[in-house]
Amino acid sequence: MNKIKILIIFGTRPEAIKMAPLVQELKKRNNFFDCTIAVTAQHREMLDQVLSLFNIRADHDLNIMTDKQTLFGITTTALLGLGQVLDKVKPDMVIVHGDTTTTFAGALAAFYYKVKVGHVEAGLRTHNKWLPFPEEMNRKLTGSLADIHFSPTETAKKNLLKEGVNPENIIVTGNTVIDALQTTVKKNFVFSTAALNDIDYTKEKVVLVTAHRRENLGKPLDDICHGLKKLADDFDDIKIVYPVHLNPAVQNTVFDVLDNHERILLLNPLDTDEMHNLMARSYMVITDSGGLQEEAPSLGKPVLVLRNETERPEAVDAGTVKVIGTEINTIYKEAARLLTDKDEYGKMANSVNPYGDGCASRRIADFLLYYFGITKSKPEEFRS
Question: Among 315, 323, 335, 348, which Cα is nearest to 240's?
Fold first, then answer.
């Protein structure tokens, strides 16, 4: 039997975190799959951290990251480079993840070579092409090119069905990030970032913050920072820990407003295992990240989302995530409520996580075997 040749493409740290468990699952089944990894390195340093953590070696590394890179540059450079990779590998299927520019470029390159596309984390929608930008259109365009849709939730599947996707080509898998958390979070974890080991997690309520999305740059991020500063000024039992994205537009705003506050710890971006273990020890999470909306609920942490819309409504419906926008007083009010109202905190912290059971990668691999005719039955879908 000829092995199924799979080319997995990703380029950013969030993609790598969520694709790593799938890479490991496919490589475990090397009697069925010939798995090749191509990275664009749309993010360089942060991507390398994840590859090292999960012991993954890229077979093709385009290394496209440049200073002040633009969407035009990322898209065209990735597309040209991935075309060359496809010409060498000649895969049976390309698998991409989520909503990055690398994802769209990878799917488009596969289409040009008439290679089938599998889309992991398929079907997320805000139904507003500008929010988040450019991610909403990246995932919609990728969805139009995909042959198989690995949806993390039933809601995502319903979005695809409304768009006319054949239900036979969709499977609800759960989110692969839950698979990743099972290997990274450890009870006796020691942080390599020394300042995190100095925090007394039993006495201080750690508020983990990330904010760096493109649509929040400028005044929204400035407002976010002033809301956080007000919180730190008024609550003496908290420690705000903010790993700050390396983008100068983020760094300049954040350090201008929040630096040198005794209850605010500004850090460089954390390695994935550090981030996951910090999240596990935190009191709550305030973020504009999509991935943290999925990760934190699985660890029982309430999430306040610094956006006006989310493509991940399942946790909002479940009650563990709340979308609060970027207005200063709203950020303060919503965070203060969770810091002072035990009942409100308990309702969010104890809600059921709708995003997975740690078996998403296995379901994806099983479906690939079914799709290529190796097995006869479609695997059971994830039910939250």
Answer: 335
Distance in angstroms (rounded) separating the CA atoms of residues 303 and 307: 12
The answer to whether residue 121 is catalytic is yes
Pick the catalytic residue: 15, 25, 61, 121? 121
Annotation marks residue 163 as catalytic = no
Q: What is the CATH number of domain 194-350?
A: 3.40.50.2000
Q: Does the annotation count 317 as an active-site position?
A: no
- The one-letter code for the residue type at 149 is H
Burial class (CB in 10 A: 0-12, 13-18, 19+), 177: buried
The answer to whether 226 is a known catalytic residue is no
Identify the three-state secondary structure at position 210: strand
Q: What is the pTM of this model?
A: 0.83
The tokens describing 312, both together, are 């991940």
Domain with residues 4-175+356-372, CATH architecture:
3-Layer(aba) Sandwich (3.40)
Q: How far is CA 77 from CA 20, 39, 43, 93, 381, in A?
A: 24, 12, 14, 21, 37
Q: Is 245 a catalytic residue?
A: yes
Residue of 177, 170, 169 lying closest to 151 (CA atoms) = 170
List per-residue pLDDT tens for the chain, 384 residues long. Answer: 799 999 999 999 889 999 999 999 999 999 999 999 999 988 787 788 889 989 999 999 998 888 888 999 999 999 999 999 999 999 999 999 999 999 999 999 999 999 999 999 999 999 999 988 999 999 999 999 999 999 999 999 999 999 999 999 999 999 999 999 989 999 899 999 999 999 999 999 999 999 998 899 999 999 999 999 999 999 999 999 999 998 999 999 999 999 999 999 999 999 899 999 999 999 999 999 988 998 998 899 999 999 998 888 888 998 999 999 999 999 999 999 999 999 999 999 988 788 889 999 999 999 999 999 999 999 999 997
- What percent of the residues of the chain are helix, what percent strand, and what percent coil, each to the nearest 5? 45, 15, 40
**Catalytic-residue membership of 344:** no
- Report how far residue 252's alpha carbon sits from residue 250's, in angstroms, rounded to the nearest whole number: 6
CA dist list (Å): 67 to 44, 74, 77, 247, 330 = 11, 11, 14, 10, 35
What residue spans in the chain does CATH classification 3.40.50.2000 cover?
A: 4-175+356-372, 194-350
User: Do 118 and 137 touch, CB atoms closer than 8 A?
Assistant: no
| Of 212, 263, 276, 363, catalytic | 212
